[in-house]
Amino acid sequence: MPSYDDQNIFARILRGEIPNDTVVETEHTLVFRDIRPQAPVHVLVIPKGAYVSFDDFAANASEAELVDFMRTAAKVSKDLGVSLDGGEGFRAIANTGPHGVQEVPHFHLHILGGHVMGPMLAH
What we know:
five-stranded antiparallel β-sheet, Histidine triad nucleotide-binding protein, globular, HIT-like_sf, 24% helix, Histidine_triad_CS, single chain, 5 strands
């Protein structure tokens, strides 16, 4: 597992060095709008802890962090009108590593919705 780079853009956002368009913030999670949205709804859900990737977070986060992250993702999906509880669904994407085309080495979950997403992969 690569070591965590505390100068990545999300770490800097969490420290308040870079502004963001916050949707919701909890004890362990921050949700903000993507600066290059790929859908009418496009937010990033990030843990406040220093986790490089999905597998790092899933293996090493505390139970409190895991529960907070998942419940926050569910709440924001509902609040933004894309969950199946009032909406038409969404796509959740966690890019990991070079093959997953992860651009920022801090675990983040993209929640995209507001229209039909199309096929998962185009080859």
